[in-house]
Amino acid sequence: MYFGFNGNTEGFEKILSRIADNHDGGKHSHKEVRAYARCLLSVLPEINCGEGVKPEVQILLAALTASGLPHYDRAFLATCILKLLSESVNSKTESTTEDANGIPF
Fold this sequence. Notes:
By secondary structure, the protein is mostly helical. 59% of the residues lie in helices and 0% in strands.
């Protein structure tokens, strides 16, 4: 456990939502968004999401830390990460609602 962090994605997603809503840079500067992304990148190993999406999330977070990107690109990348996390949660839910024969019930 990383500093008592339990792997819950709720806070991770809240921060990404702030970045995704920052299309024009009115709420957060480039410096702030890059700092958020670096912090998220460091806790990503502890996040409880599908292992299949972690490499893609890692690349997108690394891209968020790059200098020279406009706010709308950073917002787009954050939206993509949120979608990956959402799809990962939905696929976990679907897999737990199937019976032994793979038939959803």
